[in-house]
Fold ATP synthase subunit delta.
Amino acid sequence: MKAASREALAHVETRLDEILARDNAVATAAQAGLDLFEVVDVLDGERELRVDLNNAAASAETRKKLAMDLFGDKVSPVAAQVIEAAVSEHWSTGRDLVNGLVTLGRRALLRGAESQGQLGQVEDELYRLAQILDREAELTQLLSDYTAPSARKRGLLANVLYGKVTMFTEALALQAIGRPERNPIDDVSALSDSAAALQGREIARVTSAGELNEGQQAVLAEKLGKIYGRAMSIHAEVDTSLLGGVRIRVGDEVIDGSTAGKIARLRAQMA
């Protein structure tokens, strides 16, 4: 997004948080998120409508009226207020407006999980799902098939998730799979990052030769928090090929303290 769209999104995110703070009902936030996703599905296939809703030559009131004529009686009151706030802003493109509504729908669901006391669980479930997709190449290939209808891919993933995750995790993952931005693994991982960010945390992806217990993860989170100056969420996985030690990735930075990494560096020095 360009600067104008980022500013517009920030304004509407604040508005969404204000609305949900007044009505702290889990169902309200969840329904708003799902409704916004439905609106996105419509706008994705209607270029002229995207242009009209982002027409800078029209007044904000005109754009709001158009949006409410189209969606007002089809969405919840909270979703309607968010849509009105969104079309009142100036976005760089109509596509940015739609992408902004995606982000707002996700935020509403994450706020719902927060109200339910499940935001940390949703973060972890999304991370675990990304791990599963990374291991299950056949499933990921099916979910990455751009020729397959979105409904079919969502149905496939819904069968995998049914009864195993919170409703928030399922709704977020199904939306991401149905409207891909990069690939299933990265898209689901990005959702986990968003859940962590809403808790004021950054994710440290830790790969170790053996499983880390909760105490070890807590100590590592504290140490990394001091290094990076912010709270950390540890997402741990095991890779026996490391032989020993750990490899840590925070954003684009990698700290490789694994035995395999040390051996590779020694070989490079000796070459």
Observations:
- The radius of gyration is 21 Å.
- The CA atoms of residues 111 and 189 lie 18 Å apart.
- The chain is about 65% helix and 10% strand.
- The mean pLDDT is 92.
